[in-house]
TrEMBL record:
EC id: 2.7.1.-
Entry-linked SUPFAM superfamilies: ADP-ribosylation
Gene: kptA
Name of the protein in its database record: Probable RNA 2'-phosphotransferase
Superkingdom assignment: Bacteria
Gene3D superfamilies reported in the protein's UniProt record: 3.20.170.30, RNA 2'-phosphotransferase, Tpt1/KptA family, N-terminal domain
Organism (species): Chryseobacterium bernardetii
Lineage: Bacteria, Pseudomonadati, Bacteroidota, Flavobacteriia, Flavobacteriales
Family statement drawn from the similarity comment of this UniProt entry: Belongs to the KptA/TPT1 family.
HAMAP family: KptA
Keyword field: NAD, Transferase
């Protein structure tokens, strides 16, 4: 499968598994899992075709590890980034002392005033390294990398979760924990 086709299927899966499963009439379970065969059948009705091998290739080669299979590969879900209400059944964990958030320069004044909000998503996404945060920030314009004092947040009783693809998740980041 070529890179263009892989990207097309990945974008389609993001739409369906993270935001709008109803687009193809798919029901996700409470933890965001979809039956692989049902996903393939309902996608085909919308003229989006992929084999099990192609789906496996998309999951394995996605550089952000956006999707995951269950152990026997009969179910698939997005690892994080949902705008629909699902329970990823993640265990609260102690984060490193510092994590990073990449954003566009245009958002800085609002963030420093109001904090980092989850908006339409279930969580705020934080990166373990500056390089990943920079890539995230570049998607929205000139990137600015914010350092988040997550160790202090955790001491103050704020919960953190680690998604299957290594993204740290939390509900909200108050401006007092943010530095440029």
């Amino acid at each position: 499968m070529n890179e263009i086709e892989t990207k097309r299927i990945s974008k389609f899966l993001s739409l369906i598994l993270r935001h709008q499963p109803e687009t193809i009439g798919l029901k996700l379970d409470e933890n965001g899992w979809a039956d692989v065969e049902e996903l393939r059948e309902r996608s085909a009705k919308k003229k989006v075709y992929f084999s099990l091998e192609e789906l496996d290739e998309v999951v394995e080669t996605n550089n952000k590890k956006r999707f995951a299979f269950n152990e026997d590969k009969t179910k698939i879900r997005a690892s994080q980034g949902h705008s629909i209400n699902i329970d990823l059944a993640l265990e609260a964990l102690q984060p490193p002392d510092f994590l990073y958030h990449g954003t566009a320069e245009a958002n800085i004044s609002s963030i420093l005033e109001k904090g980092i909000e989850k908006r339409s998503r279930q969580h705020v996404h934080l990166s373990a390294d500056r390089e990943t945060a920079t890539k995230v920030g570049m998607r929205h314009g000139k990137p600015i990398i914010l350092t988040i004092r997550t160790g202090k947040m955790y001491e103050d009783g704020i919960a953190f979760y680690l998604s299957a693809n290594g993204v740290w998740l939390t509900e909200f980041v108050d401006p007092k924990y943010i530095s440029k």
